[in-house]
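Limitations
The structure tokens in this dataset are predictions for the assembled complex, not deposited experimental models. Users should treat interface geometry with appropriate caution, especially where small molecules or nucleic acid strands are included. An illustrative entry is reproduced here so readers can see what is and is not provided.
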Amino acid sequence: MKCPFRCRRKDARPGELISAALEVFVEKGFAAARLDDVAAKAGVSKGTVYLYFESKEALFKAVIEAGAMSAVEALEQVAADGGSSASERLRRFMATCWQTMNETPLGDLLKLLVAESQNFPEIGRWFDTTIVRRVQNATRAIIAAGVAEGEFRPVPADTAADIVFAPFFAHIIWQRAFGAVMIDLPPPERFFADTLDVLVHGLLRVPGTGAQS
Amino acid sequence: MKCPFRCRRKDARPGELISAALEVFVEKGFAAARLDDVAAKAGVSKGTVYLYFESKEALFKAVIEAGAMSAVEALEQVAADGGSSASERLRRFMATCWQTMNETPLGDLLKLLVAESQNFPEIGRWFDTTIVRRVQNATRAIIAAGVAEGEFRPVPADTAADIVFAPFFAHIIWQRAFGAVMIDLPPPERFFADTLDVLVHGLLRVPGTGAQS
DNA sequence: CAGTACTGACTGACCAGTCAGTAACTAGGC
DNA sequence: GCCTAGTTACTGACTGGTCAGTCAGTACTG
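Predicted assembly:
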């Protein structure tokens, strides 16, 4: 179990390399990231990277897939949730998304994709079908139900879903792009609570009904 | 005036190079952008780039500054606008910001900065003080006034300002990152109108007052 | 013909990707 | 237990391609 130097751990390597690569890619971007840095961060030499991944691009794809898959599992559970009111379901769903974004690498991943998807359109498309559509459809369904039941005022569900998601997306990206420079960003919990409050209030036909905070 | 080939136009070059560079940087990112491509797009050879800019990084900074400055001027005018109600002022201010983002290169610039600011923290800081603070403060002032006059419900002005801005930021970034891949994004005008409607409704103490669309 | 805007072949650095060599483990014979 | 031959995870010096940055030379201008 103790491996001071040059130890052999075939099973652990891919995971270690992927998480090291995620860090470096998020920090530098794909083009500026050096595989020597990734290897060093994972405690191996560059040659080892090529034992487990075909190329830099293959490593990049593996990083995206690994991160996204762990996130999809977390999101999967919430879809089947049949809670009381629409605003209640929306609150719970958004809370889970927010948590997933911040506690899994999905947030970092999103920032990485925003920066790089122009150079990797296939990955952008894959991300769209695997993650974005799923979350979008779930949000739309909740809002559409709320509108149908008369709890929400008659907003177009697809646009409203985008609007609900936007502030959280913005915070995730902004934090990761400028967080180091702009120290006075609001704390995540407060941001989440206040934002959801304004959004739900904006959707409700009878204001004050779905309030919580 | 007509310059078929190898003509001399000292005054026009910097501007041409900057706008060519903006395109290439936005498309590829700083690290992956090649100066040969920038030069070709501007209709000159790579050597010419170095007659007007010290280095690739200097060109990058020039791109940012040129784009941001043209935007600041456009925003400057709106601040001194003393229009009727707070929701009216907010609508007008956001409309100008939205227009500036889409009609000047500021939107492209923002996407570029999101992708690269980790590698250029000074530029991130500069952008923060020159653009972000200004817009943020203007938005906060409008919302704070609306709250003080009782038109808006008592939300924290700083957080509310971030919330108002987020959807537009998100749309700008999303469009530029994934626009080519996801064809069914809402058209900008409709997105703007619907979003502002939900947001203003969410802020108002007496719903329906500040409506327009 | 003097001055200058511009060119494009060249250099040197950097880095993705390779591969001959090494160290760590394993199985089997004693 | 100890040696040994075979296997495999890992290393790091090396290669080849790419590209930022240079500069001697060219073509246009007045």
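Some entries come with short summary sentences. For this one: Chain A is about 70% helix and 0% strand.
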